[in-house]
UniProtKB/TrEMBL annotation:
Domain ABC transporter: 18-244
InterPro entries, alphabetized: ABC_transporter-like_ATP-bd, ABC_transpr_CbiO/EcfA_su, ECF_ABC_transporter_ATP-bd, P-loop_NTPase
UniProt name for this protein: ATP-binding cassette domain-containing protein
A Pfam family this chain is assigned to: ABC_tran
Any one cellular-component term (Gene Ontology): ATP-binding cassette (ABC) transporter complex
Assigned keywords, A-Z: ATP-binding, Nucleotide-binding, Transport
Keyword presence, Nucleus: no
MF-aspect GO terms: ATP binding; ATP hydrolysis activity; ATPase-coupled transmembrane transporter activity
UniProt key word Transport: yes
Length: 253
């Protein structure tokens, strides 16, 4: 596998502003995000928290897929829910499960889809999709049927589809869950070369090695937000403390 060089990627490097003020969101009467506020402009932001703490919901909010009930939101220069066009151009979301993301039968069609949504002609979209495949050393994948790809290969297709759209910010919702070590390392290498902002939700602290900042949420609220080297040890200590107890025996209300 050829390592990708950041110079091969058609991006303009620039950390993006993320600003949330008193963001609240409820689903079916249940509060999921509870007065979330933060302001940041870094290249690498990690998001941690327990199962059900609201990380995936936050990822969807940041990419404009769901509307907040109250508060204000600015991500990469736009309100991603209200300004869908700008959000489509600036923000990419990589889902945990590629099957929730992929809709077309072949690799090239899948990569072209987002480009067509950006208003590119069929020819332009085809050229740009191919250029992305070339940049990733995967030109030979263009006519491959997605159903014949492995889980890791599908992840890479999703990542290439996002990268082709040249976003300034990519949100990764547990992108490595279920991947074997080589596939994870390969994807990680591509992501490390991304010069824009990465917002990375992960349960594995080693995924967030070298990250600038960490946001720790619980029950949709900010527990801690700051330099990763300060937040991570406190977070891990608390997770191990809870793990030594037995709160999984508690039933939900
Ligand atoms: N569509 C929905 N309908 C009802 N409840 C939902 C919906 N989406 C999320 N929730 C609830 O919102 C809370 C937060 O869910 P979310 O998926 O954001 O958590 P998470 O931090 O990503 O968890 P995990 O680490 O397990 O992926 C959970 O209590 C979940 O049950
Ligand atoms: Mg989640």
């Amino acid at each position: 596998m050829n390592p990708i060089r950041s110079t091969d990627l058609p991006f303009e490097p620039c950390p993006q502003v993320i600003k949330l003020q008193d963001v609240c969101l409820s689903i079916e009467g249940k509060t999921i995000l509870n007065n979330l506020s933060l302001e940041t402009k870094v290249s690498r932001l990690g998001v941690v928290g327990r199962n059900g703490s609201g990380k995936s919901t936050l990822s969807r909010v940041l990419s404009g897929l769901i509307e907040i009930r109250s508060g204000t939101l600015e991500v990469a220069g736009c309100n991603p829910f209200k300004d869908r066009k700008a959000a489509l151009r600036n923000i990419g979301l990589l889902f945990q499960n590629p099957d929730h993301q992929i809709i077309f039968p072949t690799v090239i069609e899948e990569i072209m889809f987002g480009l067509r949504q950006l208003g590119q002609s069929k020819k332009q979209a085809q050229q740009n999709a191919l250029a992305t495949l070339v940049a990733f050393g995967k030109e030979h994948w263009q006519d491959a049927h997605i159903s014949t790809l492995s889980g890791g290969q599908k992840h890479l297709v999703c990542l290439m589809a996002i990268v082709a759209m040249k976003p300034n910010l990519i949100i990764l919702d547990e992108p490595f869950a279920g991947l074997d070590i080589p596939t994870k390392k390969q994807l990680q290498r591509y992501l490390n070369a991304f010069p824009g902002t990465l917002v990375h939700v992960s349960h594995d602290p080693s995924d967030l090695d070298g990250y600038d900042q960490l946001l720790w949420i619980d029950e949709g609220k900010v527990v801690a937000f700051g330099p990763a080297q300060e937040v991570l040890p406190t977070y891990l200590e608390e997770m191990h403390r809870i793990g030594d107890g037995d709160d999984i025996s508690q039933l939900a209300d």
